[in-house]
From TrEMBL:
Record's keyword terms, sorted: 2Fe-2S, Iron, Iron-sulfur, Metal-binding, Oxidoreductase, Ubiquinone
Domain 2Fe-2S ferredoxin-type stretches: 1-76
Keyword Metal-binding set for record: yes
Gene3D superfamilies: 3.10.20.30, [2Fe-2S]-binding domain
Protein name: (2Fe-2S)-binding protein
GO molecular function: 2 iron, 2 sulfur cluster binding; metal ion binding; oxidoreductase activity
Short name of any one Pfam family annotated for the protein: Fer2_2
SUPFAM superfamilies in the record: 2Fe-2S ferredoxin-like, CO dehydrogenase ISP C-domain like
Oxidoreductase listed as a keyword: yes
Organism the protein comes from: Thalassotalea euphylliae
PANTHER family, per database record: BLR6218 PROTEIN (PTHR44379:SF2), OXIDOREDUCTASE WITH IRON-SULFUR SUBUNIT (PTHR44379)
Record lineage: Bacteria, Pseudomonadati, Pseudomonadota, Gammaproteobacteria, Alteromonadales
Amino acid sequence: MIKFEINGKSTALDVDPNAPLLWVVREVIGLTGSKFGCGMGLCGACTMHLNGEPVRTCVLPVSAANGQRVTTIEGIADGESLHPVQQAWVDENVPQCGYCQSGQIMSALALLEKNTNPSDKDIQAAMAGNICRCGTYPRIEKAIKRVISNGQPLPQSSPKESAVNTSAAVTLASNATNATQATNVTTASSGVEIFEPAKREVPSKADTGVKATREAV
């Protein structure tokens, strides 16, 4: 049994501990705001917060969340009132297709909760792991700077309740488990173990046989 807090509400789930947190949140709990993009922790579409730290949940086993606090995009608004970061996204008309934007917002929020006045380099570094195929990067940066210029204190990205299935007794299919990528473990400043994708070799050109090592973010 895996027990953790999600968006301020406790949940206990009978699921495969190796199943990716993303799929447990989407398929078992039913919160679908966080998206599947690459399955390798490279694009950032699946970003949630684990005890306030942004993590790539497509490669994070749900067991890593046991006893911890998980926050998804659904958990940051205050009822009908958008979180200031979400409101800035609206004001700057950031989304185009919108698929990656929940992950973009969660990464931006993690940055702004730790650094209320980040430099351009700070913003670029914090957002480097989030890919937008529509190329909305200039608008994303403008939205982050709008939050900064507003000077509005940010509510912490946690305990907002969402509808959660607290008694699901579900074992995810083995193919979901097999999709989980190998991970390294690092320790965040909070002392929580954060699972991150290991380095992977990916072909630089399909027909040359030359390979380049890419660091997952």
